[in-house]
Amino acid sequence: MLNKTIIQGNIEFGNEKSYDKALKMFISRAEAYYKSDILFEHEEIFLRDSLSLTIPRFVKQVYDKSYKNTAALLEYIVQFGISGELNMWLLHEGKILDFRYLEPSSDKVAVQQYIKGKNLIDEKGKEDEAILALNKAIEKYNRHAQAYERRARVNFILKKYHDAFRDYKKSLGLDPNNPYAYYGRANVYIHQEKYEEALEDLQLTIKKSVALQEIHWKARKLKGKIHLKKEEYAQAEFELKLFTKRKFNPESSLLMHKREAFFDYGRILINLEKYSEAIEAFEQSLDIEEGYDKIKNAEKLRYRGLAKQHAGQNGFIKDIKEAANMGDKEAAKILEAFV
Question: Quick check: pTM over 0.85?
Answer without folding.
Answer: yes
